[in-house]
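Input C-alpha cells:
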C-alpha cells in the first residue's frame, strides 16, 4: 500500500482535531450538567448534605475549568492544521491530484473553518 499523500495526511489531521473538539464540547456539557445537579442538591437540603457533597461540587467545578482550558490551544492547533490543509489543497490542485482526495480535503477544510473558538 502506498504511503498517504501530504494532502491526505493534512485532511486527516483536520478531521481528527474537529472530532476532538466535538468530544470536548460533549464532555463540557456533561460536566456542566453534573455541576448544576450538585448545586441544586446542595441548595435543596444544605443541612442534610454531608461534607463530601461540597467537596464533590468543588471537584466537578475544577474539572469544568480544566476542560474549558483545553479549547484555546486546541483551536490554535485547528487553525494551524487548516492553514496547512489550504496549502496542500493549492499544491494538489496545481499538480492535478485525485479529484476525490481534493473533495475530501475541501470538506475537512469547511469543518475546520466552522469551529467556533469562543463558544465556551
Amino acid at each position: 500500500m502506498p504511503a498517504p499523500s501530504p494532502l491526505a495526511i493534512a485532511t486527516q489531521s483536520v478531521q481528527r482535531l474537529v472530532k476532538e473538539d466535538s468530544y470536548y464540547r460533549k464532555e463540557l456539557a456533561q460536566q456542566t450538567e453534573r455541576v448544576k445537579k450538585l448545586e441544586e442538591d446542595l441548595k435543596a437540603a444544605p443541612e442534610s448534605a454531608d461534607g463530601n457533597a461540597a467537596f464533590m461540587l468543588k471537584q466537578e467545578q475544577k474539572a469544568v475549568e480544566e476542560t474549558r482550558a483545553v479549547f484555546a490551544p486546541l483551536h490554535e492547533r485547528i487553525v494551524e492544521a487548516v492553514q496547512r490543509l489550504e496549502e496542500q489543497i493549492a499544491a494538489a490542485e496545481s499538480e492535478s491530484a485525485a479529484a476525490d482526495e481534493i473533495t475530501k480535503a475541501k470538506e475537512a477544510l469547511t469543518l475546520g473553518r466552522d469551529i467556533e473558538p469562543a463558544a465556551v
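Residues 51-94 form the longest helix (44 residues). The chain has a mean pLDDT of 89.
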